[in-house]
Design goal:
Strand content: under 5%
Largest sheet: none
Helix content: 55-70%
Protein name: ARM repeat-containing protein
Oligomer: single chain
Organism: Pluteus cervinus
Distance between the termini: 70 Å
Order of helices and strands: HHHHHHHHHHHHHHHHHHHHHHHHHH
């Protein structure tokens, strides 16, 4: 696309340093810091200054307090002929963003008009994507819908792009759900999106901002893969989001998948984070069941608590359990952890790093009389 110029007329390149194309006025501006510069001093050179590191910062600051006439002059020098090149410029993009923030609604509309037909490539460009996001915040709904239509056929490409995903997130946050037809293309792709570094963020924005009729099909699909997603480096964040922000029935469904799997998941690098979140977000009854599972010896007689105290990930889940457990169950859990802590400290130095935090938590829980008796008996035996 020929109009997506890489340079700025009469401006700098290479980070705003040496350039034989720099005007005498910009040279003076960069050299003469003592002079009190005003916007009117650089009229006729707005595009060049916008593409310069120091000039761009100057224009940004002045636009915040500029008169209507001054803004119009700046606007007219940029729009429409120089808009696209500045949008993609490392320094110029900030000037365009300021015009969206401080311009009149007519100016914002005209500025966005120059972007129409180019929304996809701008969304995929490092600096352009920032301007597209800013435009979405300030343009009117009908123009937002135009942006959406340009991206409709390419939404999955944008979602998986380092720059484009931010534009899709902004659309989901700011545009009325009935105009976001592209959300339909997420159906059938929920697992794929959840396990993608950018897709997982977009999916979370959907669950956060869209109404139930849009999110229900996505959630129903998500629930089919809960156990796998808990163990994924990106999917675990989506499951955590459901636990923290989801409807009670969705939270309960995730927690039901954890039951019977707590120890296994607590020992997993990513799923352990889900276990912690479940302990924090579960209602009283579900939390009680999850913690009870951690206290119940396995068929081989080994206590899950011992395993967790030794494990590099599960020990954090145990710490979380100690911070959220309540009432009689708290006494039971502390009563099982404390003697193991004493034994492990006495007979092994291998797990000392894991145990310091647990020990601090137990210091806040004075032992009951029964526990004190048990402690004196149990701690005499070495831990196998």
């Amino acid at each position: 696309m020929h109009m997506f110029a890489q340079g700025v007329r009469g401006g700098r390149r290479d980070g705003g340093e040496q350039s034989t194309l720099r005007s005498a006025l910009l040279d003076e501006f960069r050299a003469n810091k003592a002079r009190k510069w005003e916007l009117r001093d650089i009229f006729g050179y707005i595009v060049e200054f916008s593409g310069d590191q120091h000039g761009s910062r100057f224009i940004q600051q002045k636009l915040e307090t500029a008169t209507s006439d001054e803004k119009q002059i700046v606007f007219d020098e940029i729009v429409p002929n120089n808009t696209l090149q500045l949008i993609q410029d490392v320094f110029g993009n900030y000037v365009i963003q300021k015009l969206f923030e401080h311009g009149t609604q007519v100016q914002k509309t005209l500025l966005a008009n120059t972007m129409e037909g180019h929304v996809l490539p701008l969304s995929l460009q490092m600096y352009g994507c920032r301007v597209v996001q800013k435009a979405i915040e300030y343009i009117l709904p009908d123009q937002q819908a135009c942006f959406v239509r340009e991206l409709d056929a390419h939404v999955l490409k944008c979602v998986k792009d380092a720059n484009g995903n931010h534009v899709i997130q902004k659309l989901i946050e700011r545009v009325s759900a009935d105009r976001l037809g592209f959300v339909g293309s997420f159906r059938g792709n929920v697992y794929d999106l959840s396990t993608h570094p950018y897709g997982c963020r977009v999916l979370q924005r959907c669950l956060e901002h869209l109404p139930e009729e849009h999110t229900r099909p996505l959630l129903d699909e998500l629930h089919r893969y809960t156990i796998n997603l808990m163990q994924d480096q990106f999917g675990n964040y989506v499951i955590q989001f459901v636990l923290e922000h989801g409807r009670p029935q969705d939270r309960a469904l995730v927690i039901s998948k954890l039951r019977g799997q707590m120890l296994q998941m607590a020992r997993h690098k990513f799923a352990s984070n889900v276990c912690e979140k479940a302990l924090v977000c579960a209602d009283g009854a579900n939390r009680h069941q999850l913690i009870d599972e951690l206290m119940t010896p396995r068929q081989d007689g080994v206590s899950p608590i011992v395993t967790m105290m030794k494990d590099q990930f599960a020990n954090y889940v145990l710490q979380r359990a100690l911070t959220v457990v309540e009432g009689e169950q708290k006494e039971q859990l502390v009563g099982k952890v404390r003697p193991q802590l004493v034994s492990m400290k006495r007979y092994s130095s291998a797990y000392s790093k894991h145990l310091v935090s647990i020990e601090r938590l137990l210091e806040k829980c004075p032992p009951s009389q029964t526990e004190s008796h048990d402690l004196s008996v149990q701690s005499a035996e070495p831990l196998l």
